[in-house]
């Protein structure tokens, strides 16, 4: 990703946060993200985020599991090695139900968790910038991206007026990198001039 | 903005004066403090038991399953009894984390983390028994349908024992994923307030770089809900399939259609008893009485008396059907070899512990008494172990041929193996209680403003308000 400049405002009450989000958006500032210690219901709508499609992905993984189990067991018992088990039929559909069900659940759960991790870009040894150490404790942290058109001082004053408690400016990597949380990593902050500019 | 109102008639789920930071402080600080003497003693005993279990299993593998007191008549003894017992215990964790989530039961947030941990550890213990019972355990991978050089000769997809392989391994995987995805935000909380470098590093790795981004929370909520939706039928299917191990056979006492619901109820019954045993100690030692309140204990005791009574009805139904069916073999199994006969004592222990004693929980005073609950939880666990023993052994020890009638008592490697799984379970639980947030911190915070005691006090003013005014204020937020 890229190193960007942010103005960060911390709120200590979700009742203040909600109107603040509305006002900041109405003022046209670009909210990079809001970090909360627990899921705040409705905040995704207030930020204008679209609904997640993770459920749909889960459904698709699920039916993949269903078809895998059913087709595999049918193939084994009717085509690959039709075995006589106590004279029972070669295509005993009711007996296939338990395994079909289990694989449906397994595929769906594993697939969804993998997708979740991919979408959120999370994995062991992945590091991301933490704007405030208390954003996983009791603060609701709003990071506003400083673009060419925003003046940081103005944003700070605005955040103050909507009720943010701690306000500061941070330059940080917006994406993830491989790193350890016990070390401060020095990431590239200098813009490298392209040779053919 | 969400409506932060809940009737004051409902008991608060979090006692004391709390704010978000205090919640973090209360739940995370035991991780940061040095463990007490009791913890070391407990862990030491658990590891000792675990090592004895390893020794017993090694003995069994070296000399063969013959060192167990199984014989031609009784092919399943303590091993399968313990397997079913441990799997059953696991079920309460999933019930709390998944089914109660779907039913929007707020009280689950106080106990779900520990209960899910219990599920995972219990399933780990359960899995040991069928695996080591294979005897030639180095062939254990034969249960997997993999393309092999013997044909390929596939596994028998008609067999309930194979269904079990799929059910238990799916159950373990899904429970682990569900549990760990819930742990991510809490690990991040520990990470961000860590004072030592090592803790910051390790919890940093464990938290997968969680930040608390709104989009991530949105996906996390969706994930939890769907995993709960998947786990609910899964948990019912697992013990149903375990009961198929018996019900699809033609042994009198096993061959009944009542088994799936009866097993599931029994599983939840024993699982809640184990949750009580663990949490009554955990809340005391970690001083979490304000999060796992008497109200939580009472709610779980209600589940115990309900499922215990379902189990009781199932026992009586079995007895009725054994007589009403007119099948001589069924009748003999139940009336001559279970309720009477050389192993009859185990039937009456089962009846006393599972059906008669839980009835004390019809009284509110008893449900809210910690000591009574703790003793009852142990009694129920003993009773449910005997239920499995009764089902397995008393159906087997008197078969169709009186010349092969036999008696069964376990040999030391069987007892040692069972004790070893206790060691495994409690070693894991002690490590969990020390290094993991035993209560879901983020989830507690999300119900704090509706169910915290100090916030509930503020609800009184809404309740005095006119309904019209209340509705008006809420819609214009």
Automatic annotation (TrEMBL), chain A:
Pfam families: ActD. Keywords: Membrane, Transmembrane, Transmembrane helix. Coiled coil: none annotated. InterPro entries: ActD (IPR021776). The chain crosses the membrane at residues 59-77, 97-119. It comes from the Bacteria. This is DUF3341 domain-containing protein.
TrEMBL record, chain B:
Its main location: membrane. The chain crosses the membrane at residues 38-63, 83-103, 115-141, 161-183, 222-242, 262-282, 303-325, 345-363, 370-397, 417-436. It holds the Pfam family NrfD. It is a multi-pass membrane protein. Keywords: Cell membrane, Membrane, Transmembrane, Transmembrane helix. It is found in: Cell membrane. It comes from the Bacteria. Belongs to the NrfD family. This is Hydrogenase. It comes from Chitinophaga alhagiae.
